[in-house]
Amino acid sequence: MRKQRHENRGHEKAGGGSGPNRTPDLPLDVMHIRDLPRETLRGGKLERTAIRSQGSLVTFNLFQPGVERAPPHSHPFDQLAIIVSGQFRMYVEEIAHDMPAGSALLIPAGHAHSGHPVGGEPVINIDVFAPVRGDYLHLVEHQKFREGPPRDKQADLDARGQGRPGKSISAKRELDREDG
User: Going residue by residue through the chain (180 aa), what tens digit of pLDDT does each one get?
Assistant: First the structure.
């Protein structure tokens, strides 16, 4: 797996500026999807890999033509299915949704769903799961992700001596919204 390391030293967020809105000095890893470890399923007709953040997990799926529809399943987290190439038919609560390349479908937590490629070409699909899907953690072991609570931006700033003295909780929430 190839990784490029970039140091984000002294760069500001979009919009410029300095001070407390400056992006913290954190190493950033550029991951190339083609180089990530993957698993092969369904008789070699489905390949899958993934990456994650603190609050979500993203899978990259390659379905070969002829993959049969799996039995419907559900899970306790939302899924956003995005079709990058090919044609896919997704069933949510047994309602068929035809998904051409460039389409997306939100599958709410707890809704039974399954799908399969339609036509004779491979399908590239990206699925976003939030919160993180625990049964897919084996797909992201390559990241050596540090578990822990979500980062508190204000606490990070305070720890570096760049806090905002005198700000109320409501003002802090407003600043957090601005920080994204």
Answer: 444 444 433 333 444 444 444 434 334 678 889 999 999 999 999 999 999 988 899 999 999 999 999 999 999 999 999 999 999 999 999 999 999 999 999 999 999 999 999 999 999 999 999 999 999 999 999 887 665 554 454 444 444 444 444 433 333 344 444 444
* Number of neighbours of residue 139 by Cβ within 10 angstroms: 22
Q: Tell me how far apart the alpha carbons of residues 86 and 123 are, in angstroms, rounded to a whole number.
A: 4
Indicate whether 107 and 156 sit together in one domain.
Answer: no
CATH number of the CATH domain containing 83: 2.60.120.10
Nearest to 125 by CA among 109, 104, 142: 104
Range of the domain at 157: 152-180
Residues 68, 126 share a domain: yes
Residue 159 is assigned to a structural domain of this protein: yes
**Do 130 and 54 fall within a single domain?**
yes
Sheet strands (E) in 86-153 = 88-92, 95-99, 104-107, 113-117, 123-130
CB atoms within 10 A of CB 162: 14
Going by DSSP bridges, is the β-strand pair 104-107/78-85 parallel, antiparallel, or unpaired? antiparallel
